[in-house]
Design brief:
The structure holds three protein chains of three kinds.
Chain A (H helix, E strand, L loop, with lengths): L1 H27 L2 H4 L5 H8 L1 H32 L17 H12 L4 H8 L19 H23 L2 H12 L4 H16 L1 H12 L3 H6 L7 H10 L6 H30 L2
Helix pairs in contact in A: 1-13, 3-13, 4-7, 4-10, 5-7, 8-9, 10-13, 12-13
Chain B lengths: L1 H24 L1 E3 L8 E2 L3 H36 L8 H13 L2 H7 L1 H6 L6 H21 L4 H12 L4 H12 L1 H17 L2 H7 L6 H10 L3 H22 L6
Antiparallel strand pairs in B: 1-2
Chain C lengths: L1 E10 L2 E11 L4 E6 L5 H9 L6 E6 L2 E2 L10 E4 L11 H11 L4 H14 L15 H13 L5 E5 L7 H18 L2 E6 L2 H7 L2 E6 L2 E5 L2 H5 L5 H11 L2
Parallel strand pairs in C: 3-8, 3-9, 6-7, 7-8
Antiparallel strand pairs in C: 1-2, 1-4, 4-5, 9-10
Helix pairs in contact in C: 2-3, 2-4
Classes of the chains: A mainly alpha, B mainly alpha, C alpha/beta.
Amino acid sequence: MKTLSTIAFFICIVIPALAALVLSSVYASGYFHAQETSIASFVQMAESTRFLKALGYTFLLASAVVASSTFVALKIVKLLNRRMEIPSWYLLPFAIPPVVAAFFGFHLLSGVGLLSRVSHALGIHSTPVDFPALVNDPFGIGTFASHFMLCMPFFVVYFIYLRSQPKLEQLAVTARTLGANEQQVWRHIVRPTLLHKSTPLLLVFFVFVLGTYEIPLLLGSQSVRAMVPVIVDQIKGYNLKGIPTGYAMALVYSVIIIIVAAGLSKKMSRQYGA
Amino acid sequence: MVRRLTPILLLSLYVLPIATLALLSVAATWEYPQLLPKMQINLLSRIVSDGVGWGFLTSLQVALPVAIISVVLGFLSSYRLLGSRYRSVWLWLALIPFCTAPVILSLEMQYFFIRFGLTAQRVGVVIGQLLIGIPYATVLFSLFWSADRLKQEEVARTLGCSRLQIMQHIHIPAAGGILKLVFTQLFLFSWFEYGMTQMLGVGQVQTLPVLIFKSTQEANLALAAGACLVLILLPVIFIIFTRKIAFR
Amino acid sequence: MLEIRNIAKTFGTTPVLRDVSLQCKGGETLSVLGKSGCGKTTLLKIIAGLMTPDAGTIEHSGKDLTHVPVEQRGIVYLSQEPLLFPHMTAAQNISFGMRMRRRTKEEVAEATDSMLHALGLQEHGGKLPEALSGGQKQRVAFGRALLVEPKVLLLDEPFGSLDAGTREEMQQFYLRLTKTYGFAALFVTHDVKEALVTGSTFARMERGELTLFADLDAFVNDPNGDVAKERQFWRNLK
C-alpha cells in the first residue's frame, strides 16, 4: 500500500511538476526556437523593466491584500469578540470565484458602474468621466478591491473559528484571572494566537494573489500589470522571439513558488503534522 | 451598537454582489446615469438558450471527473505522508503545483498537450486540472494523516491486519467527513477555474467562467451576469445545505 | 517463550537501547520499571515489529521473528491511549481482529459476546468509543487484543491516563485476565506499586539498559531501584 501510494505520488505530483520545470527551462533556453541553448532570454528578462515592475507590483498587491484583509477581519472578530457558531451566510462569499469578483468589481467601480451612478444621483459628479478611475487605473484600486472582497470574508470566518476553540477561551479566562482586562486579553492573548495559528492560511492566500490572473485581466491597467498576465502575454503574444523570455519569466515565478511552498510546508507540518 | 451593526453591514456587503448580478442578468439596457437597469424577465430564458445551459453542462462534465479522480488519487498519494520522517518534504512537493497559478502550469505543460492532441478537448482540460487537483487534494488530505492515525494503524497491524485491510476497514470509513469536504473543494476548484481551461481548451471548451469572460468581452451584459449567477448557484446551495466548505 | 537477545538501537548518534536481552514465559508477566525516555517504548515497538533493531534477535518458541512482518507476529501492542477505532462500536472494536481473519459471523458474534461479559461490558457493546469512560475504553482495548489470541502482549503504561481508583481496579482486572488467558506479557510502567502488583518477574530499565532480577526480593532490595527509594521516603516521613 505504501509502495502504491509512493508510485501514485510520483506519477501524479512529482513527475508532472518536474516535467513542467524541465520544459520551461528548455523553452527558456531557446532550444525550441533556435535549436541551440543560450541564456539570452534570461538576460532579456533582466534587462526589460516590465517583468521586474510586474514582479514588484504583484508582491506589493499580495502583501497589501493579505495585510489589509487580516487587519479588517481582526477588527470585525474583535467587535464580535465572543465564541459563536458561524452562521451559514458568513460563508456566502466563498461561493464567489475570482472571475465573478472581477465582473462584479467592474460593474461596481467603473465610470458607468453602480458606485458612479449612486454618486451621480447624490449630485457629487455629473458625467462618468468625472468619476475617479477605480478600474483599469494606474494604482490598481479595482484589482486590490476585488482581491480584498475575496480574502477578507475568508479570514473573518477562519478567525471566528479559531476564536471559538475551547483552548483559546481557556487561555483568555486564565489571563482574566491573572488580572488582564478585555483589551489586554485581546492584545496579548487572542490576537497573537489568531495570527500565529492562521499563518499557513495567510501564506496560502499570499501565494494565490501572487498567481492572480482573471482579476487583473479584467480590472488591471496597461501601466501596472500583475506578473501572471505579463507572462501569459509574453508567451502567447505575436512576437515569437519573445517566447523564450516568457518562459524565463515563468521559471522565475516557479522558483518563487518553490521557495514559498518550502516555508508553507514547514509551517503546516509543525502545526498540523504527525 | 457597533457590535450589533457589524453583522448587518457584513450581510449587506456579502449580498450586494449576488443582488447586483441578479439585477444585471435581467437587464435589457442600463443607460447612464439610471440607478436600475430596464428589466426584461424573459431575458432569463434567452440567456439559458444562448449558452448558459451548455456552459453549465460543460462545467459539470469537467468538474465531476476532476473532483472524483482527484479525491481518489489524492487520498492514495497523501497516504505517503503518514508516519514519514520526511513529511514536510512530501508536503512541499505537493504544495508546489498546488501553489502554482493554473494558467502558468498549463503554459509550461502545453508541449505535452499539443503533442498528444489534448488541446481544445474536454478530456485535455480535465487532465490539465488534475495536475493541480491531485496535489490540492493531497495537501488537504495531509490534515487527515495525523499522529493519531499512525498510532491506530500500528495497533491494527499488531492485531494482524494487512495495510490493505487497514485502508479498507480503518482509514476509509474514518475519512468519511474529509472525503466529502475534499470532494466539494475540488469540485469548486474545477467549477471556478478559468485560466487553464481557456489556455488548454483554446476557447472550445466553454465552461461557465470561459463563457463569462467571452460575453464580457462581447459586452453582452445580461449573458455574462446570468452565467455568473448560474456559476455561483451550486456553491451557494452547497453552503446553505451542507456548510461543507474548507478554508482554502 | 519470548526470547530477546542483544537488542540495540541508536537514533542518530544517541543510543536508545544497549544490548537488551530478556525472556518471558507463557502465563508470565515481566514488569519493566523505568522512567520516561529510558527506551522502554522503543523496546516494545521493536518487539512488536513496528521498528527495526540495529542488532539483536527476537524469538518466540524457538522461531526467529526478527524479520517477520508486524501483522504475522502474533504480538499485540497496547499503549497508554486505548486507540479504539472511533467509527466502530465497542463490540465492533473487540471483534475487529477476528473479522479481519474472516472468521464466520457466528464465531465472531459468540466470541465477542463472551468477551464483553468477561470485560463486564455487556451493556456497552453498542456504544461508540466517545460514549465510554476511560476505564471502559481500556477494557475494550484489552478485549480487542485478547480476541486475536496473541502469543505475547506488550503493555506500554496501559493505565497511565486513568485516575487512581480506576487504575487500581484495572490492575486487578489485568491479573484476572492473565490467569484466564495465560499469555506472556511485558508490562512497562514507571509506577513502583503497579510493577509489583502486575508482575510475576521483574526488570528495571535505565538509559537503554535492562537489568533483570532473579526474583521479587532481588527487585525490592535493589539498592539503586525505585522500590528502595520509595521505602526510604516512607521511612523518612514523620
